[in-house]
Amino acid sequence: YSKDSGGNQLKVYTPALSSKRVERFNMESALRYALERGELTLNFQPQVALATGKVYGAETLIRWNSSDGKTIQPGDFIPLAEETGLIVPIGQWVLERACRECKRWIRAGMPSLVISVNISALQFQQDDFPEIVRKVLEETGIEPFNLCLEITEHTAVQDMEHSIRMLGELVSIGVKIAIDDFGIGQSSLLWLKKLPVHIVKIDPSFILNMIEDSDDLAIAKAVIDMSHSLGLSVTAEGVETEEQLQRLQQLQCDRIQGFFTGRPMTSEQFIAYFKEIANW
Ligand code: C2E
Ligand code: MG
Ligand code: MG
Ligand code: MG
User: Taking every annotated instance into account, which residue ranges of this chain make up the domain EAL (predicted)?
Assistant: First the structure.
């Protein structure tokens, strides 16, 4: 404590550690209300098929426009949302909104687009999750093949028995399953054989230096070849240069997603993007 110069007011100096805690607490209460205040928005990042150059679909990426005017990136609030359980209502909102946007795209003349949605571990652990997905499809009127659920490798291998059952139920609905951030976990490639999934997403960390680093290139090639021999298709994430695109094309990677072909954008921008590519 220190006495304010002249006055009789006591000032409290919070040590660094607990001010971090205060910050976290403030952020948690703000996040709690972000949904109902309409501060959460969605961006969509194009995924392009390498064989045809056509737009395959888009991944849904959340943003938080906080009340003080700043845009907060998911890396800075998704972990907190996961720790507090807020990710469940937020994730539910993302799923509904994404499917509704996809319905707009279908109506705008893009019937076979695939919308990808990130599903967090807590959502995936809910036993009634397949029921939730079925209901969202029904309410938004998109077809199961229009929806891809992205589950990280980390989430998928946490409880194999649960994952096999859950993924089996989701696949039987007809939605696609992608394994996100593939390659950075410690799991062996073999478990991919056991899980009913369709798409492997190579983590950007392998794409970043694949031109300069022959180890990264070898890993990308191995993931692509192994996925193909298991009957899975591959999306490379974080493609930023034409050189990376060409190399991935040579490796017969199926799709790319990255700043080179398109940054995350609004739904309106995505419709315009699609029409522009379709007219090339
Ligand atoms: P992710 O699912 O692996 O999403 C890809 C991230 O890579 C996105 O970051 C995207 O903007 C970024 N990215 C794409 N292309 C490039 C590129 O060429 N270069 C570089 N440097 N980065 C690129 P973002 O939007 O910040 O999202 C980060 C993570 O937050 C996501 O990783 C995902 O795990 C999580 N996330 C985002 N939205 C949601 C959501 O609705 N629900 C959940 N549970 N997680 C979400
Ligand atoms: Mg993802
Ligand atoms: Mg990823
Ligand atoms: Mg990621």
Answer: 24-278
Protein residue closest via CA to atom 30 of ligand 1? 74
Concatenated DSSP letters of 30-60: HHHHHTTTT-EEEEEEEEEETTT--EEEEEE
The residues placing their C-beta within 5 Å of ligand 3, an ion, are 180-181, 237
* Ion ligand 4: protein residues whose beta carbon lies under 5 Å: 181
Burial of 60 (0-12, 13-18, 19+ CB in 10 A): buried
Q: Find the 60 Cα to ligand 1 centroid distance in Å.
A: 9
The interface predicted TM-score (ipTM) is: 0.97
Contact in structure between 226 and 189 (CB atoms under 8 Å): yes
Q: Could you tell me the mean pLDDT of each successive run of 10 residues in the chain, 280 residues long? A: 51 66 86 94 98 96 93 95 96 98 96 97 97 98 98 92 97 97 76 91 94 94 93 97 97 98 97 84
DSSP strand pairing (199-202 vs 176-182) = parallel
Task: Report how many helices (DSSP H) and strands (DSSP E) the chain contains, helices first.
Answer: 12, 11
Sign of CA dihedral 265, 266, 269, 274: positive
Nearest residue to 210 via CA among 220, 201, 202, 200:
220
First to last CA, the chain: 68
Both tokens assigned to 142: 């998109």
At 239, the amino acid letter reads V
Distance 140 CA to ligand 3 centre (A): 26
Note the pTM of the prediction, 2 decimals: 0.92
Nearest-CA residue for ligand 1 atom 34 is 118
- Find the helix or strand (DSSP H, E) in which 9 lies: none
